[in-house]
Amino acid sequence: MTKVLVTRKVPDRYVEQLKEFAEVKMWDEEFVPMPRKEFLEELKDADACFITLSEKVNEETLDAAPKLKIITNLAVGYDNIDIPLAEERGVTVTNTPEVLTETTAELGFTLMLATARRIVEAEQYIRDGKWKSWGPYLLAGKDVHGSKVGIFGMGDIGRAFARRLKGFEANVMYHNRSRHRIAEKELGVLYVSFDELLENSDFVICTAPLTPETKDKFDRAAFKKMRSDAIFINIGRGATVVEEDLIQALEEGDIAGAGLDVFREEPIAPDHPLLKLSNAVVLPHIGSASVVTRDRMIQLSVNNVKAVLQGHPPITPVTDK
Ligand code: DGY
User: Fold this and answer.
1) Which residue minimizes the CA distance to atom 2 of ligand 1?
2) pTM for this one?
3) What is the mean pLDDT of the chain?
């Protein structure tokens, strides 16, 4: 019997679709990852596995899964998976591009506005009973309209972010591993070097995936190059940032603020140093978390499993390019 392992609880309507052609073993928790030991155990006779970012796919994982044909990752990013090794073992890997682009850009935009206008801090101000009167510079923040925004990573999400900025009449520059001529033409975004992006932006937005080239890209030197009134937003991956360096930059005023949806180690604990800083807005990795988008991501993952197990090409394969 064909077996599909699902490492996180998903709604019954998706499980039913998988059950039409396979036996389904699903971890029954939505907010707690499947323990590694159990994951490896269940992989022994699995033909497909439907995983989240919490599951690391490395040599140990693939060694434990001799029958595996497809890994479907419930995310567009796939830094949790050793892609060359999966390819070497003949295991197809799929992700969830496109369906989450707009929702993730929207969250990034929310985070930028919230950080710029000090929304979390302002609400806390009322809750703490500090609001006594209107004041000319009370919780005064930074305008997004007319600002200079530097986007690091001009993929689908970077472009969706730039499109939104048009309505704010912002001047958008970007840095990417390669130039995106269509985005330049359609969105009027300007390609600049990484240093130029850091030195000139009011807002630096990281939408980049985690790769050997982007790992630790935002370090002490990078934050030092940024303007002291600049705000850093990260909706890509946490490990693009050296977190201690970011904390130091925020504490010492090298930059004005940060809005973060991703962290090096997730989840972060309530006593994480970033949570002590009033100029940091932190979210629990909810970039693509709208109900409709999560539905679409799950459906796409189910469709990928079904296609591959029924001998068809995957819909959204990830390759080691
Ligand atoms: C992704 O898709 O890579 C997100 O970070 C998870 O929603």
Assistant:
1) 75
2) 0.97
3) 98
